[in-house]
Sequence to fold (295 residues):
Amino acid sequence: MRQDISLIWSQDIRRLVDPVPTAPLAARGEGLDGPAGRIFGGQAIAQALMAAAQAEGQGRLAHSLHASFLRAGDVGKAVDYQVTEHFLGRSFANRQVIATQEGQPILVVQVSFQGAEDGHAHQVDMRTHLTPQQSADRLRQWRNRTDERGRLFADRLDGRPIEIVPIDPDALFGAEPQSPRSAWWMRLRHPAGAEPAVQRALLAYASDMMLLRTAMLPHGIRPFSRGVQTASLDHAIWFHDTPDMDDWLLFETDSPWAGHARGLSQGHFFTAQGRLVASVAQESLMRMRRPPTPD
Fold:
């Protein structure tokens, strides 16, 4: 029987993102989280990242991740992660992780690690100026005036391990076509106090939540709509610094393109103080389901 996801996170968050080592370059994880019996893509990415990090003994941290989803994973089956060392240098290391269920590959991830270095620095500024508290107040007001279906979409996020507070609830949960830009605050519901490698895995988990929604905005498609088939196709993350998932992070997203039943979304994670800690890009399946034809 599938266990309650909020209970798992309140007791031991590592069960979602940190697989158990089974050999020096192998690990096994549980498929605990996902819609309709499928493993949530963010969980699989996070576990693959941790499997690669478990093989890192030189103090390097992941600075980039590129993932390709091959087939849907089953939450009722264990996931095996096999790590291959492709490069090991003085500053960088590169590893490939293949995730399988019962011998069938479901995900391939390439992870690059780097040791600490100094260098030139710059970043873009966040465009949002609403605080988490101001955004939470707007969300409460929106819940009081939206329709039942809008509240249903918002309520589905309440039991998730990541708390999400949108800057503009109408854009995130509404049915009217919007500009393909969105933003929301995110943090763990139950503080982890985790080390840097695990914090990166937690951000990887969170980075797959609602990102596809941005590509839906111009087309008036609501989240969880039955008329559209969605799935992550590939996913990339660049870690600029170690995030603190116990504290609020702002995820600003936009979608530069959609077509051919695919949508491209990208985003940036900022601390509440405006420091850029990660950037993300994802292409997803966004296929409209055809109505059944009459006999």
